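In response to the reviewer comment on reproducibility (Comment 2.3), we provide here a single inverse folding case reported in full, input and output, so that an independent group could reproduce the run without further information from us. The structure tokens appear first.
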């Protein structure tokens, strides 16, 4: 296999719009630059869709829907399996692309390829298991049959933080269910999705089933809204911020569109007095530092029992302080840059705000000088509840630690947020682990572990963190309608 270099992967990615099985230029010739967050320099330009291109993508998805829904499940399963094999075989290439456009280290990007590809394998196995049921009405007079059918053409809007996996988590079940789709990747990271479109075409996904259109920051809403309001679209699935999710749900309400929303988080990380502290620190490193803290699942608030807070904070600060910051493609680097300048400015402002309100910096606390959007891994102690970071997603490598005294206080603090995606609990007491899991108002709970994401599990949140689930047995249901047929005897 040819050596994967920065130049070779960037050159190999198609830079156009993928509509109806073909690559084409944008109808008005507009392009956007894709930057390397480690240097701030432009990597390449890609075409962005106009309103007319968006309409053409929907036309293609609608035209392909009937045949695609009739394609035997085994055939769709084989396509997904082939996509899994291909993605796995080309892991280095996809990892390099993600590192270049998003910033995380190559090791982390490889991890995302494994995670992202697994959605194709998982849903290839689910494709042939879709079924309805057959029963007798209680009065015995009729028979009740249910069948599962694809929802239909689906618009998928994805974020920049996991450029591959946030796409495969939607594309996998849509292919399995028999839905056609239009994918709109984030403007900071379109390259990974463009490369994936090419891969899916190569393995034989029919023309029109998958359409990928990048859009530019300024025109995204203008291109997406007519699609969402078009009665031919049957579903919108979005992963991104809660404010944008709210706006999209409003637009979707016009057509009573099926929606899945994977939105923001504000994850609490609870460490109880009986916890294995080394294990809690290990878990904290994963929950905080995976993806440079730019994950909806990132631990955003650390609540530690007062009797173990000093030991935990000191241990975490030591581990965070030892991390090496640098360009994600460089050997020996642990932490890459944040995605762009606004992201770094936001983290800087949140830390400055917390410190002004009384937080102590145990390690880090600033952005290093020089090019790129880096921020030092940071641990803050005594963070007051009035700090903005207690309510907002930090989306960076900053761990704010606060203490608690009782289990009731821990629950109150943890649930005191509009979000409800994931929470983490570290304890050796089985009863406490169960009662906490029940009391925490979150879609997911990690017990003695800092990562919950797993293609075989239902990922998703409650409250302002979203509606619907991705992955697991639940993931395919989001792309299926249940039809009931009543049969009189
Ligand atoms: P974002 O600003 O909401 O953008 C997400 C996507 O929405 C991008 O593709 C963006 O396109 C698009 N978008 C923005 N405005 C739009 C509009 N008016 N109409 C249609 N599409 C629009 O979020 P982000 O900063 O990329 O991602 C970070 C957020 O995602 C965080 O809040 C994080 O918690 C959340 N997230 C959630 C999950 C989960 O599973 N719950 C997973 C990962 C991330 P442009 O780039 O073209 O603007």
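Designed residues, in position order:
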């Amino acid at each position: 296999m040819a050596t994967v270099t920065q130049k070779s992967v960037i050159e190999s990615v198609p830079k156009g719009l993928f509509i109806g099985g073909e690559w084409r230029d944008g109808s008005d010739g507009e392009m956007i630059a894709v930057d390397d967050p480690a240097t701030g320099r432009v990597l390449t330009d890609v075409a962005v869709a106009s309103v007319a291109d968006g309409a053409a993508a929907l036309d293609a998805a609608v035209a392909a829907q009937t045949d695609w829904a009739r394609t035997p499940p085994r055939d769709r399963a084989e396509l997904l399996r082939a996509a899994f094999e291909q993605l796995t075989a080309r892991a280095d290439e996809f990892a390099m692309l993600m590192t270049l456009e998003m910033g995380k280290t190559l090791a982390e990007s490889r991890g995302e390829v494994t995670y992202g590809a697994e959605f194709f394998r998982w849903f290839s196995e689910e494709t042939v298991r879709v079924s309805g049921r057959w029963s007798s009405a209680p009065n015995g007079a009729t028979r009740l049959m249910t069948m599962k059918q694809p929802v239909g053409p689906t618009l998928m809007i994805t974020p920049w933080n996991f450029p591959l996996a946030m796409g495969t988590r939607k594309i996998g079940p849509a292919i399995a269910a028999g839905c056609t789709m239009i994918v709109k990747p984030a403007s900071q990271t379109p390259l990974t999705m463009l490369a994936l479109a090419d891969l899916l075409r190569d393995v034989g996904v029919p023309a029109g089933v998958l359409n990928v259109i990048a859009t530019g920051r300024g025109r995204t809403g203008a291109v997406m809204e007519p699609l969402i309001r078009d009665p031919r679209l049957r579903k919108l699935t979005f992963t991104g911020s809660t404010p944008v999710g709210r706006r999209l749900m409003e637009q979707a309400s016009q057509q009573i569109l099926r929606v899945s929303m994977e939105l923001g988080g504000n994850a609490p990380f609870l460490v109880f007095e009986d916890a294995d502290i080394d294990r809690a620190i290990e878990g904290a490193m994963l929950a905080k530092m995976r993806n440079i803290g730019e994950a909806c699942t990132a631990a955003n608030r650390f609540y530690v029992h007062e009797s173990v807070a000093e030991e935990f904070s000191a241990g975490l600060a030591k581990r965070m302080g030892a991390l090496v910051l640098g360009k994600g493609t460089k050997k020996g680097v642990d932490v890459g840059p944040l995605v762009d300048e606004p992201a770094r400015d936001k983290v800087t402002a949140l830390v400055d705000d917390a410190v002004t309100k009384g937080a102590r910096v145990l390690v880090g606390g600033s952005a290093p000088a020089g090019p790129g959007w880096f921020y030092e891994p940071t641990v803050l102690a005594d963070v007051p509840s009035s700090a903005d970071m207690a309510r907002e997603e930090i989306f960076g490598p900053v761990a704010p630690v606060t203490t608690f005294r009782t289990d009731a206080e821990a629950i109150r603090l943890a649930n005191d947020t509009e979000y409800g995606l994931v929470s983490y609990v570290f304890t050796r007491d089985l009863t406490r682990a169960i009662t906490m899991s029940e009391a925490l108002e979150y879609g997911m709970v990690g017990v003695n572990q800092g990562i919950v994401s797993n293609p075989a599990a239902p990922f998703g949140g409650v409250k302002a963190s979203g509606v619907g689930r991705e992955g697991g047995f639940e993931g395919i249901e989001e792309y299926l309608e249940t039809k009931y047929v009543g049969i009189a005897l």
